[in-house]
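User: Predict the structure for this protein chain, please.
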Amino acid sequence: MRELLLAGTRRVREVLVADDIEPAPIMDDIEELARELNVPLRPVTRRRLESEAATAAPQGVLARAAALPEHDLDDLAAAPAPFLLVLDGITDPGNLGALLRTAECAGVTGVVLPSHRSAHITPAVTKAAAGAVEHLPLALVGGIPAALSRLSAAGVTTVGLDAGGDRSLFDLPDHAAGPIALVLGAEGRGLAKLTRHRVDMLVAIPLLGRLNSLNVAAAAAIACFEIVRRRQGAPTGPRSMGEPDPTG
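Assistant: Here is the predicted structure, written as structure tokens:
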């Protein structure tokens, strides 16, 4: 809620506040921002707020706001120093929210989602993303493989994180520090077959323990910040390959 008001990317019509909500600094911030933006604050009963909320456990405050703005894939690719996150069929809302939160913290400049067979931006995703959806330009595309071809044509290096990667994530080539799109697959199956064929390169996270996989949100955090390190010109250290990560 605080990030929604701070970002100013969409109109907020009103904020509903449960009449039994406990005082807290975050509520003071929300109320102050709402007053500054001339957004009406309306106290309601807890039962009324919960009946109108679209999440299982609302936290005592609810905003009525315009939909998130839609962005075009070509515009995301043309941004200065693009660092994109392309999500190939992430279906779990909690994972999608965690991915978006990580992406925002890592300085990702845009996120690409397929319009079908994928979780979209729901109240549950928004809650899990902790406000990140208000700061990340999002583009919906008809198909991920076609979107990857468009990104490559625009000069964006597409890097798929997959168990079948023949290169370590930590061995990215120098040009990966330029315009880049990190591509992550669905939970369980990883990248779709056609997606694997369309990316410019496949990489894997070296795993040195007994388990052979990471949760997709954890894998994304490692990969995003490795790209951040590359883009900031940090020196590379020793590298070794263990069991690759399926990102699912």
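Confidence is low (pLDDT under 50) at residues 236-248.
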